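User: Show me an example of a complex going from sequences to structure tokens.

Assistant: Sure. Here are the input components:
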Amino acid sequence: DVKVTQSSRYLVKRTGEKVFLECVQDMDHENMFWYRQDPGLGLRLIYFSYDVKMKEKGDIPEGYSVSREKKERFSLILESASTNQTSMYLCASGVFQGAAPQETQYFGPGTRLLVL
Amino acid sequence: AQSVTQLGSHVSVSEGALVLLRCNYSSSVPPYLFWYVQYPNQGLQLLLKYTSAATLVKGINGFEAEFKKSETSFHLTKPSAHMSDAAEYFCAVSARMEYGNKLVFGAGTILRVKS
């Protein structure tokens, strides 16, 4: 079974703090994703990484950055946390099948972040 | 641009009744469609996906979905609801990015199963 783990289930941070969310997958997948989940909005893509040190902006990248130094690990960084970044953050991974659109994404359990 | 619309943010059914969760898509290219389920305090799990091989797709836990191009729909059904089906369900469509594919999700439908 594919396993995607996230470093924290719950985080509480203060406005202006730098926040790191970590994600690790154990299936040697090429692709990794960070989504944000908000009630009534579903999931929205923040960033996508298709290889080590390679990334592409998603739909809502403002206020976020990412890092992928190793294939299995993908980090989401909030440079200066704000209250409107209070949300559930979900990491996912997927096999690169020649850019196949039918790729299944496998999700981690999520990190619920509260910014005070 | 690809998008999906889920009709009904909340659906309530009795145990043993038919489950019908609605999803309509918009896509300028032949779509690849997915249904995911999220149980409380968990990540998303794939239920099934449509990849053009067959219009009726069977998934896990007795769920199935039918792709109807004429109606631009991909509704999820289960003949008999079980208490354990209570969860949030997301419909998604694959959308091309420069270096891969992302999922574009609907807003989700929370399914409640009454005993």
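The lines above are the inputs; the final block is the predicted structure for all two components together. The CA atoms of residues 11 and 52 of chain B lie 28 Å apart.
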